[in-house]
């Protein structure tokens, strides 16, 4: 029974050794091939080596074991280059474990298990990635495949996931066609030293489109004039769609120094480039274009007596919208053709008012403040058009006083607002925005609040968080179902300050009393609140872990643990 | 020392999950909402979890197993409630404070631990046991003789004919081997059925497998004339294993050590779910393979944390190359195990080859490779592991995609320590060490 040993039948054995390299190496020497041929054919048809079927099997067994016992390695082909070093510090151990759990939860189908009390971990991944990126940690190597898969599946977290995954992930992505997406875009190349003019110019002239956009945006933040000069240098040679994207980067740090360049762009071949240049110029109150637009707009709007009004002393606004869109207006970016369902004259008026510096209206309308102007009655049904245009202007020009005036008191009936308060709110300082949203929620409840709440800074202020929780409680007591508020609930999970978890705990208790709403509603609400509490707890833990304040659950441990005392 | 309780990490807990769905469900349930009455003490954790019904589920975990019980109807082991409870416990004393177990949990624990201590008594009637063994040996011999004839017939007719007959004759033959109480022969026969469909070169593989099976049948028939260790190997290959309890009853044969859990593999054999753990004794240097089975859709019970040291006694099944073992009593909790020492590619193949002298039926041998680099597939070749300081390379067997990419990511083009199985078809990686931590693949 010693057929298995490699050393019992001769010294010239090494010649028969097999190199284990590609696929499964069949025992491949001539003798073996003969045995296989004989086996395929059948010993009943032709006498095999050894003389019988049994002898053939015994020879084959010997060959098989001998060959396996003498396997030698194959030789290596071209090796991959080493992954670039990542000097960032590693995650604290508890944070690394949290990441493992978040990535494991990623594959959870949306909507599945929404009724269980646990948090939807996939929704916390973007927040976690942003926070880990802000701390400047390095991603654990073993999690890179899962991070790349997450970035591939969800474009909303792609940028953060790739930034966190770092250079090793790009090295890895180059080996797997499924992750090619990670190599597109500027993040694939090393950043350029923005003070090195030659490096900047060479990247600008030779880089891929995404790299050039990223470079221009970075340089604009670093040195606004240098960025504009860089763009101006190649401007005539760029394609129209590229010019539009490049022009857009000038929104950042827009200043009077940009006016000559933008003025030239007003004569661009492309209509979209022209209108973007006009829009940017109109956001510069001192620009010639803004002056021209103001002259046109002011000519359309004047003070008038529109009848007795107690608050305004009988004063009001009369509007005489433009009768034509002349060549000058067109050159300044006014679009002549209104969209369907829109009158031409109101369309032109809207564009003129939107592009006129808001600071010019006070003088035109009797020295009134923005709030007083907004309060004036407007004749002949022009109020809605005029206020909507001012609201767009307030957003474009980031004018806080006008935005505040146009947003009005948050408790005002919604129908009277100038369109979309969420956009106006973005102009207000964060604290005021939160206060406004809180008062709005207190007055109107949550059904129209989603977009407003989305504009508020995370975590929500105490006032805002309180208002949202109160409104949820009111909605529950009014007999609604929690899924009617799933949008706000989801937002609250991600945006409420984790410190509010205590305030929510009583709401998460299961109801004892006969239930107020439809059948089972109380139980559903309790579950929804449990979920909210659970998510807040997880978020608080996440922040602690990333800050390195979480207890090390995994430190050195004694081999024999003393029994825990019963307490 | 104070009563400080060292808790597991969330990752250790999640490693116990039988599948990805349980891992997700457990993570989701590991929130404060549904839990009440949680506590820990005396190597156990317990708690009540609100479910869809009126009464909460009672969940308890014995950390020394680890083993768990739960009043939920899940057939998974551990169930999502047990996982969630352990995750809560891993978070610290806030969610799960120390305390005294309530009656329902204490009762279960006491019963479990009595069983653990009381097990291992010998067979009640040695005479009857001997008769049973003789009867079984006769049946196995009859089966082996039948199979040998069948193989000879196959070779006389030629493998080309066998290809046309399909898998049915092999399935029937496997069933006859089960009747003959030789499960080892049955499994090999069942594997033969798939060979003709395994792609180019199948006749060579078929001949090799038939030849090894023939060798096993001959060995089975001449069992009494074989030297002791080889006879033990043949018995093991036939599936004539000794019961775990009687192995452990032989106190002298139990190897006490701190065992590093090198790797884990979950798969299926027939209708059984199979889980394998490979261990390396820190003091003895011995390798061990632990098997755990789950019948009828249940997941295997045995769970060990990969990368940790477990202090326990193992009893090895007798064999020419003792590898398979059964775990005895475990003491204390697993501690971090560090990175094991390893060998190069050539030494790994040599280690496999050397074991064939004692067990020619050996398919793979567990090996820790050190200083190896994964090299990408090129020109039709599969991924390989190559010595960092040398030209020798070993193909990786086609494994799951996530495992391969984790291995490559951890390597980053540099040398790593990898545990896996080495055999004639290449290397199957199970674990890689990343900055001192074991990463299951």
TrEMBL record, chain B:
GO molecular function terms attached to this record: zinc ion binding
UniProt keyword annotation of Glycoprotein present: no
Cross-referenced PROSITE patterns: ZF_SWIM
Region Disordered, residue ranges: 115-135
Keywords (A to Z) from UniProt: Metal-binding, Zinc, Zinc-finger
Annotated SWIM-type domain residues: 57-90
Pfam families in the record: SWIM (PF04434)
The protein, known as: SWIM zinc finger family protein
Organism field: Streptomyces chumphonensis
